[in-house]
Amino acid sequence: MKKLLLPLLILCLAFVAKAQSVDTIAVYSPSMDKNISSLVILPAAYDGTREFPVLYLLHGYGGNHETWLNIKPELPELASLHEMIIVCPDGARSWYWDSPVDSTLRYETFVASELVSDIDARYKTVGSPKGRAVTGLSMGGQGGLWLGFRHQDVFGACGSTSGGVDIRPFPDSWDMKKSLGEYSEHPENWESHTIASLLPGVKSGMPIIIDCGTSDFFYPVNEKLHSELLYRNIRHEYISRPGVHRNTYWAISIEPQLLFFANFFKGKPVYQQ
User: In whole angstroms, how far apart are CA 264 and each of 158, 170, 270?
Assistant: First the structure.
């Protein structure tokens, strides 16, 4: 009996290890001429024989590629549950833009082109918009919508949690002027890099999920974006619940977002009919 238990224990431990598959990779960015770290979570079912969809999950200002795993240690189990690869790139303090004033900041190009190409080459992925989505928190929530709306040929769905979806009320905050210039000197940059400026180009039917806590300092701009989306008849999932701008909120808010994108990847309805 003891002889049988040892192989079974080894098999169980191997399964657990596989279920916790987390890689940290360095991805070279030709546009910025440097390596950038990304965290890659592989679901338990990943064995390199079939294609998996990929969710690109963006951190907020002051975070890095490990932020989401620290906020939600259960992400590997959730990746396995929903059968998706989760990629968390290090976006520095870039707001995921290609800066119009600093040619060394090309994080939009990095995430939407260079990173996607690397992930598709390195792993067995669904290499089309039907198998890619992007979302994130705070700065990364702005990034999720910015990249999703501007690169609909790359990402088939997008989202935001507690996102800085209108940057204009915060001209002196979070290093944004390093990417856009002073608001007083370059107002056109601030206008064109606000999510609302992209809405005329959003394709009908693109799945979108947005949420924000009602006590979050970004709540008013999320409410405003929600109203603008309704006015333009752009269908989206909008969730407002009690909460503030902190990890405890995002540890909960990410779960319905993952379900939303999992349904999209599986071709299931993402909205109530």
Answer: 10, 33, 6
